[in-house]
Amino acid sequence: MCPRALREALAHFEQKGELAKVKVILPVHLYGTPTNMSEIMLIANEYNIPVVEDAAESLGATINKKHTGTFGSFGVYSFNGNKIITTSGGGALISDNEEQIKLARKLATQARDDAPHYQHSMVGYNYRMSNICAGIGRGQMEVLSNRVDQRRANFERYQNIFKKIGWEVSYQIERAGVYSNRWLSAFYFDPEIFGEKFREDLRLFLDELNIESRPLWKPMHLQPVYEHCIYFGGDNNAERIFNYGLCLPSGSNLREDEWVRIEAGILAFSNKMS
Ligand SMILES: *Cc1c(COP(=O)(O)O)cnc(C)c1O
């Protein structure tokens, strides 16, 4: 979330007298690299709007040693199968507001009243994690720092490969005090340096070698379901990153022979292009 676009959005609703419609600010720590929380919190506090951090991808990442997910009123982590640690499915909501967490826990367990029989004064949900998944999660928490090290090593390895072949790819830069978990090794192939078709050509080239890579997330304002919504962020960064960004293989368990294959693939593409 760009703090400038956030300001623009809030000013827009303020001007229309619709600020009360804005219930929450929801920044996302994309690909495991913390977003600019100090600026976002400053704006949120100015407008007195609660912040819910989507830290689904960034468990283990920190800003000045403080974990992502702990800056806003709430933080959300995902333990889905593709995340840095997993319980196969599910996640966690965190907050330092005990009352609200109690309420969330109640809503997640069908909003049962405190009675020996099943009684409900509110409509709840069946969102709780099973004890089996929770058991897996507790074990996974113990290897989190290990996983972060592995993912960070992946990212560094790609950077070294790019340095070797002279590719200038800068994206997901760690600003001062920021520590990314490098959940995905995501890179931006600036069309002004690499040309318009480079990213897609690289993706297809690797695909031929049975090496899967993917474009970055499609921005929300380009999702068909949100086509009718207003979009703030006139510089179209998200769209550009979607068009020219690529996620390279990023598993914590990449084997050495797989790395050899990936590196050879990237080198072969580089040779083909030069
Ligand atoms: C994975 C993910 C989610 C969804 O998490 P689930 O546990 O799969 O529901 C939400 N936001 C981001 C940014 C994610 O990467």
Describe it.
- The chain contains nine helices and nine strands.
- It has 274 residues and is α+β, with helices and mostly antiparallel strands.
- It folds into two domains: 3-141, Type I PLP-dependent aspartate aminotransferase-like (Major domain) (Aspartate Aminotransferase, domain 2); 144-273, Aspartate Aminotransferase, domain 1 (Alpha-Beta Complex).
- A hairpin with a 2-residue loop joins strand 2 (62-63) and strand 3 (66-67).
- Helix 1 (3-15) runs parallel beside helix 2 (37-47).
Features:
274 residues; alpha+beta; Aspartate Aminotransferase, domain 2; Aspartate Aminotransferase, domain 1; 2 domains; three-stranded mixed beta sheet; three-stranded antiparallel beta sheet; 9 helices; 9 strands; 40% helix; binds pyridoxal-5'-phosphate
Secondary structure blueprint with pairings:
Layout: H1 3-15, H2 37-47, E1 52-54, E2 62-63, E3 66-67, E4 74-78, E5 91-94, H3 98-108, H4 131-141, H5 144-165, E6 178-179, E7 185-188, H6 191-194, H7 198-208, E8 214-215, H8 237-244, E9 245-248, H9 256-273
Helix pairs in contact: 1-2
Bound molecules: pyridoxal-5'-phosphate.
